[in-house]
Amino acid sequence: MGNGYKPCIDVFRKIVRAAGLGVGEIDLRHETLELPAWPSDLSGLRVALIADLHAGSPQIDEERIGRIVAAVNSQSVDLVALLGDYIDTEVALAEEIDPSVIADLLSGLESRLGTIAVLGNHDWAHTGPRMGQALRDAGIELLENRATGVDGFWIAGLGDLMKRTADLEGTLAQVPDGAPVLVFSHNPDVFPRVPASVALTLSGHTHGAQVDIPVLRDKLTPSRFGARYTGGHIEEGGRHLYVSDGIGTSRLPVRFRAKPELPVLELVAI
Fold first, then answer.
1. Which residues partner with 32 through β-bridges?
2. Check: CATH 3.60.21.10 for 26-269?
3. What angle do CA 65, 227, 79 make, to 5 degrees?
4. What is the DSSP string of 68-114?
5. How many Å apart are CA 90 and CA 138, to the nearest integer?
6. For residues 14 and 236, is the Cβ–Cβ distance under 8 A?
7. Is 45 a residue whose pLDDT tops 60?
8. Cα–Cα distances in Å, from 164 out to 79, 119, 132, 157, 173?
9. Where are the domains of the chain?
10. pLDDT digits over 78-116, tens only?
C-alpha cells in the first residue's frame, strides 16, 4: 500500500480508537476460586492475569498498556501472570510497535512475587523469537516448557500449542512430587491432558469468542473444542481451568459481548 494512503489510515485508526468498538473500558474482575489441590498455607494468594494484549491494534497502544499496568499495580497482588499474545501487527488498521517497547512497559508491573510469562501464537507468528527475548531483556521471567519454584509452589509454563510444542508431561516432570503447581498455557486446549494434581491452569487465547453471538459461539471460539473453553472458571472432573477473555483483538479491531478484562483471582484451599 502506497504512502498516499497513510493519512487516511491514520484517520480511520483514530476513529476506531475513539469509538472503542467493544475494546473500551477494561473490567477489573475479582473472583475467588476454591481449589482442592491448593494448600491451606497458600490460601488467599492473589494472581492478576494479563492475556492477549495484541498491541499494535488501534485500541492498544503504548499509552493504553501503561494504563493497564497501572490498573494491575493498584490491586497489590501477589503474582502477575502474563499469558501471551502481547503483539499483533496484522489486526486491521494496526501500526508497528517494537517488542521491546511492550516488554519495557510490562516490566513496570508490581507484585510481591513478580511477573511470570508465557508466549502465544501471535508472538511467534509476528516476531519469531524477538518478543520472548524482549521480555527476558526487560527482566520478566519467561517459561517455555519449564517449571520454576515460587514461594512454596511451582509454576509450569508451556510452549504455545499452535506455533511451538506444549510439553505438558515433560514440564510437570520438573515439579517435585506433591508440590502445589499452577500451569500457565496460552492456549486452553491443553486442559484435557492436565492431571488433577495441578491446582489450576491459567490460559487466554479465546478472547471470550471476541464477537460473542451465542448461536455462533462454537464457531467463533478459536479452539478445537468449540465453546467448551470460551472463558471464565471451568471445572472438569475435579480439575480447574481459568480462561481470561483477554484485552485486545485479532483480525478485526472489534469485540461484541466479550468485554476486555483484567481478572484478579484469589486462590482458596478447600
1. 266
2. yes
3. 35
4. HHHHHHTT--SEEEE-S--B-TTSTT-----HHHHHHHHTT---SS-
5. 24
6. no
7. yes
8. 25, 10, 13, 13, 19
9. 26-269
10. 999 999 999 998 888 878 999 999 999 999 999 999 999
Distance, in Å, from the CA atom of 244 to the CA atom of 168, rounded to the nearest integer, reads 20
Q: Which of 94, 114, 117, 99 minimizes the C-alpha distance to 17?
A: 94
CA-based nearest residue to 212, from 14, 7, 22: 22
Instruction: Give the 3-state secondary structure of residue 70.
Output: helix
C-alpha 137: how far from chain center: 20
| CA distance to 9, 162, 193, 222, per residue, from 197 (Å) | 50, 25, 12, 27
C-alpha cell at 113: 512475587
The beta-strand segments (E) located in 16-169 are 27-35, 45-50, 79-82, 115-117, 141-142, 146-150, 153-157
CB 53 within 8 A of CB 71: no
Residues in the chain: 270
The residue behind cell 499452535 is 162
Instruction: Kindly state the cell numbers that stand for 119.
Output: 508466549
CA distance 60 to 48: 19
| Full strand arrangement of the beta sheet holding 153-157 | 146-150, 153-157, 181-184, 200-203, 239-243, 232-236
- Whose grid coordinates read 520478566? 140
Show the cell assigned to 164: 511451538
| pLDDT at position 22 | 61
What's the farthest any 2 CA atoms get from each other in the chain? 62
Q: How far apart are CA 94 and CA 34, in angstroms?
A: 40
Q: In this structure, which amino acid lies at residue 172?
A: L
Query: pLDDT tens-digit profile of 108-138?
Result: 999 999 999 999 999 999 999 999 999 999 9
| 69: its cell numbers | 499496568
